[in-house]
Amino acid sequence: MSVKIRLQRHGKKGKPFYWVVAADARSKRDGKYLEKIGTYNPNTNPATIDLDLDSAVQWLHNGAQPTDTARAILSYKGALLKHHLDGGVRKGALTQEQADAKLAAWLEAKAGKVDAKKEGLTKAQADEKAKAFKAEQAVNAKRLADAAKAEADLMAAEAAANEVVSEEETTEVVTEEAPATEEAPAAEENNEATEA
Which residues lie below 8 Å from residue 20, measured CB to CB, with a gap of 6+? Predict the structure, then answer.
């Protein structure tokens, strides 16, 4: 029986969540498995991987073949390095203490890289949020300036309309008074004509 270390899909549509399992190569993708080794969540940034390192290395020692994605996950978490170092210990090239020291140093360096990436992502998100906030403030300031300008234009238009209305009223008053003054001399002429 050949054993594969592979991913078993769980989660919902569009939000996958995987179990890392050791399964018979003939079994279905999401079917029966021999042992659950860990989990892999690609929905987070960076992806969240929880792996039982000793169990994964034990399966590798027993001859389990990882799929391409499972190999990348095992490499990322250091299982392949531990398997390699254990092979060196079995051959006598290293002592167990040396292998453990190399693995610890590698895991520490890897943790530093992951933390740096997380900090970079957090900083990028904060910068993007600040940039969006500044852009929103600029848009709001422009909107307020446009509203103030529109209100000033409206006030100026109303003032101009009021001036036109007052000028029309004064011209109407003048025109109403002018015919009255013209009628008076005409009436006087009529009076003079009747007297004669």
Answer: 5, 6, 7, 8, 36, 37, 38, 39, 40, 51, 56, 70, 73
Task: Let me know: does 53 contact 84? Beta carbons within 8 Å.
Answer: no
* pTM (two decimals): 0.61
Q: If 0-12 CB within 10 Å is exposed, 13-18 middle and 19+ buried, where does residue 194 land?
A: exposed
In this structure, the number of other CB atoms found within 10 A of the CB of residue 103 comes to: 17
Longest dimension (CA), the chain: 155
Backbone angles phi, psi at 39, to 5 degrees: -135, 155
For residue 94, pLDDT beyond 90: no
Give the range among 16-20, 40-44, 122-126, 142-146 with minimum mean pLDDT: 122-126
- What band does 196 get if pLDDT is binned at 50, 70 and 90? low
Cβ–Cβ < 8 Å for 17, 11: yes
Please check whether residue 73 is in contact with residue 49, taking contact to mean a CB–CB distance below 8 angstroms: yes
The dihedral sign for the CA sequence 80, 86, 89, 94? positive
Helix (H, G, I), strand (E, B) or coil at 126: helix
